[in-house]
């Protein structure tokens, strides 16, 4: 009986995961094409720069906590809860630290990437790092529980926000 449940969860999870990836991969270039047409080249360059810096910092803030929570076999719910708590607070702390570093060196970063004078834009956009850390651990919970349909909705909405804005 347990094998059937795991099999069904795996099939459903695979289906939703594939759909999520395809939709997200299709929406992203469409949004970029629309932005490239609507914005001036300078403004689009700033958007690309901000996206690059925040994406790079986000890689470090996650630090593999999501993968650990999904792949590790915990002894019981209490062990899982403790690990989740540590992962959340560490992820949040690293995100805030990354934001502080970006804030402190925002003008130098802007100059480094060829957008001198845009330091304020970079550190304001980097405020998304701590906000992202609030949801990333919850997303790991959904992955562990094979609730990929929920992740589909979240990811599609997140991909559509720049298009709507």
Keywords:
165 residues, mainly alpha, 86% helix
Outline the structure in words.
This protein has 165 residues and is an all-alpha fold. Helix content is 86%, strand content 0%. The chain contains 8 helices and no strands. It has helices at 2-38, 41-62, 65-71, 77-104, 106-112, 119-125, 128-144, 148-164. Helix 4 (77-104) runs antiparallel to helix 7 (128-144). It is flat and about 55 Å long. The model has no long low-confidence stretch (mean pLDDT 83).
Reading the helices and strands in chain order gives: HHHHHHHH
Structural class: mainly alpha
Q: Runs with pLDDT <50, length 5+? A: none
- Beta-strand content estimate: under 5%
For the CA atoms, what is the radius of gyration?
A: 19 Å
Q: Can you count the beta strands?
A: 0
Mean pLDDT: 83
Helix content: over 70%
In DSSP terms (H or I, runs of 4 or more residues), the helix count works out at 8
CA distance, first residue to last residue: 47 Å
Largest sheet: none
- Give the overall shape: flat
Gist of the model:
With 165 residues, the protein is an all-alpha fold.
Please give the structural blueprint.
Layout: H1 2-38, H2 41-62, H3 65-71, H4 77-104, H5 106-112, H6 119-125, H7 128-144, H8 148-164
Helix pairs in contact: 1-8, 2-4, 2-7, 3-7, 4-7, 5-6
